[in-house]
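ASSEMBLY PREDICTION REQUEST
Request ID: AP-0331
Submitted by: J.K., bench scientist
Number of chains: two
Total residues: 642
Priority: normal
Notes: Please return the full assembly, not individual chains.
Input sequences:
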Amino acid sequence: MPGWRALLLIAVLLAAAPFGLPLYAMTLLTEALILGLFAMSLDLMVGYTRLYSFGHAAAYGLGAYAAGNLLLHTGLPLVFAVLLAALFSGVVAIGVAWVCTLATGVSFSMLTLAFAQLLYAIAFKWTAVTGASDGLAGIPRSPGPFGITIFGSKTGFYYLVLALLIAAYLFCRALVNSPFGAVLRGIRENEPKTQALGFNTRRYKIAVVAIAYALGGLAGALYAPFAGFTNTELLFWLFSGQVLIMVIVGGAGTLVGPILGAAFFLLVQQYLSSYTDSWALFFGAIFIGFVLFAPQGIWGLARRALQPRSGNAV
Amino acid sequence: MGGVGTLHRGTRPCPPAFDPLRGPIPQAEGEESQHPIALMDFLGFLITQCLNALSQAALLFFLGVGLTLIFGIMRIVNFAHGAFFMLGAYVGYTAVHLTGSFWAALVFAPVAVGLVGAAFELGILRRLYRRDGSAFLMVTFGLTLILGEAIRLVWGVAALEVPSPQSLSGIVFILDEPFPVYRLFLAGAGVVVALAIWQFLERTRLGLLIRATSQNAEMVHALGTDVRLVRSAVFGIGCGLAGIGGVFAAPLVTASLGMAPNAVIDTFVIVIIGGMGSFPGSLIGALLVAFVQVFGTYYFPDLAMAFMYLIMLAVLVVRPGGLLGKEA
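STATUS: Completed
Returned structure:
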């Protein structure tokens, strides 16, 4: 398996990051990892099953609002609230997926978009639960269980995010390498053929959407206590478009690529915007440049750079 | 009609059933005639709201028809469509100020926007037709960012007022209800443009090629037509139509940087409801969404936005390709 050593190195570097990086950079890195988890969850659908969701912000928003409400209104410890919110997002996704998988192709994308926008519309009006356009504010990082309080600190929270990201990555890696993952790839390459082999592909699609939503919900659930607030932007279609771009820029169908894509997206945005007000101009040009000159994405570029010899051998 | 009194906006009370000077009013004519003024009020309200919805539908149609044409020919979901709409409004603003004429802007801005669109097709999209849909998503998203930023650099962040032409700036009374002439004009313009596009698609050679290409591009190519030129033309025309929408919308909403994201999502909804790639579908979608928006906002202000997406979901569940689209 190529890249295992590189991945281990990245994980070690990330674990050591709090000892070397200033606090500002740690905040940025935490957000990058949360977005990375979000993008990786979408990769299960886009990269492995060819289900282009235009509404993945729904997963993030569901997780964020669920976690926000749990943390604000119950004394539930941070970790439990976050996991429960992820579960909530996954359960809602079963219903969403049941409807969306009635269609395929562009219609599937548009149905996911419709659901996300519907949630956006609801979040805008259901003041009691979502705080409407103000959003939820002052979301705490509740302590516990057993009196554990380290997740309340910036560094502790960073390690929580990192641990969950690594766990989610290992889970996804095992998933796509399992027989279940083989069926997903079958759907990606040729759905009618996979059906002809006797697989109920719709059930597999519903399952993968639910898993992707649960992990995307986990990312959103982490974002709520990270930022301390939620707002309706988290459900807006623009965010769905952005995460799809993170997946493609990073390299769809690689799991690691989308994480890098999300980090790239966030860091380049931060970097450019600190130098010029017109960062969007360069940002847009970078996307177009990627499509024209690096269709395999960041991870594809990195792999080619890491393995020049094996490339020559072929 | 007992409901009439409660439905109208309540500026005038219903007339009493008993006139103190002339005794009881005869009731032989049935319920409707009891409240003639209230009924007229309601009719006036109904007509003005319908016209309102029609003018809204015209704007949405300018956007939707361009998007659906582009999708029909190229299978591209053009995320930059809202940005072209916005560009139309800003170029229209400048054209109005340079020439002093709204009509000149109405000609100049769509042509300019269409040329930008065609240039983008020639420079970028043309290289990507063999790639999958995600490539188009990325480049049109990238273009959205670039156009938005370019507009901010050229025109600044402040919203820009575009005056409606002098001859259309007044108000007419429809059954005593005031109604802006400009919106009336907009509804009419929508009808004219829809008829013009229909005739263009049915009667001209380019229209024939467009219809043929959307059905079977390879066959058109094999018969000796350069499909690439058709694609460039369609992308330019589609963007130009969004530009027309931008100029028409500018006097109503002012030209601002927030136009693009809101416009593009409404446009998606229309085109999806009507069926991606279907010209009459975009018309039906625009009408449906406009009426839901106008009447929904009036009667159920909290649910209006949700209605639009619920309709979209319902349509897609029943007909995944949209009302008039092919099965996806």
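REVIEWER COMMENTS: The first helix of chain A runs from residue 4 to 20.
SIGN-OFF: pending second reviewer
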